[in-house]
Amino acid sequence: xxxSPVRFQARSSIEQVEEGNDLAPRFDDRGLITVVTTDxxxxxxxxxxxxxxxxxxxxxxxxxxxxxxxxxxxxWHKGATSGLVQTVRELLVDDDQDCIWLQVDVAGGASCHxxxxxxFYRKVPxxxxxxxxxxxxxxxxxxxxxxxxxxxxxxxxxxxxxxIL
Amino acid sequence: xxxSPVRFQARSSIEQVEEGNDLAPRFDDRGLITVVTTDxxxxxxxxxxxxxxxxxxxxxxxxxxxxxxxxxxxxWHKGATSGLVQTVRELLVDDDQDCIWLQVDVAGGASCHxxxxxxFYRKVPxxxxxxxxxxxxxxxxxxxxxxxxxxxxxxxxxxxxxxIL
Lengths: 165, 165
Prior knowledge:
- The structure is a homodimer of 165-residue chains.
- By secondary structure, chain A is α+β, with helices and mostly antiparallel strands.
- Chain A is built from 4 helices and 8 strands; from the N terminus they run αββαβββββαβα.
- Chain A has helices spanning 14-19, 53-62, 128-133, 152-156; strands spanning 33-39, 45-51, 66-69, 74-77, 86-93, 99-106, 122-124, 142-143.
- In chain A, the strands form 3 sheets. In chain A, strands 2-1-6-5 form a 4-stranded mixed sheet. In chain A, strands 3-4 form a two-stranded antiparallel ribbon. In chain A, strands 7-8 form a two-stranded antiparallel sheet.
- In chain A, strand 1 and strand 2 form a beta hairpin.
- The two termini of chain A are 36 Å apart.
């Protein structure tokens, strides 16, 4: 990384945070901010993650998505292991500046460690659909993607699975 | 609400959670799950919020988005005050089932308490764009929406602003 590091403004008022031009993100008591990542072309939701201060600074300065891995407790340059780097086309911040929206181009076309294009490959029936399908309050998930883009074992080998039970 | 309440499965294995048909959501140590809400037609990210168990059950059973308000610490039927109800067209869950994606139709066309269509109405320059614009590491946010859909004072009156500094 070259040049000035990214600096954030202190949060001084609701007016400044919601209606001003200052970048004054709010990190929670774990030091993290929520990140929502969508495909810049299709608009599809790819993943939801977290950044710490350093990850947000690096994402802004390099234009490549960096996250904080809660399971591994490390700064995580997305794609460093898998090659599935996310190049940021747009980075937006929400009204109270406690959430970041990344619109990205994904090398390799996949974002999910399980091997799918998106992490969101199963849906839950809702409303009338729930009522007609539920058995004792339980419903089955429906799959929206059926073919994996890559084989996780080829890409990650023996690396521990990040899912926490 | 009528009929059986929505029931979730216990989380027993990574295989079950990632590759199974069971709805087995993971609520964090605050009892919350992250929610990402997009416009079902445009795909635009509208807001990011949280649900507790009850909010997720009610969203599934009624087909209308319910959240948990961290600032007010109450179950929150979105639109109960503002009229901007979100009707859920699709509800998806991610690989490790710690995030919910709602695709919604929004009554009134706005989702943000500040009055904009989306909560994400400002962007941050990244990469080369950041480097050319930054002054001492600071950059100004750029606005992507300039006209409010509604006047928050008309809709919320004297209700306290949910933004936490």
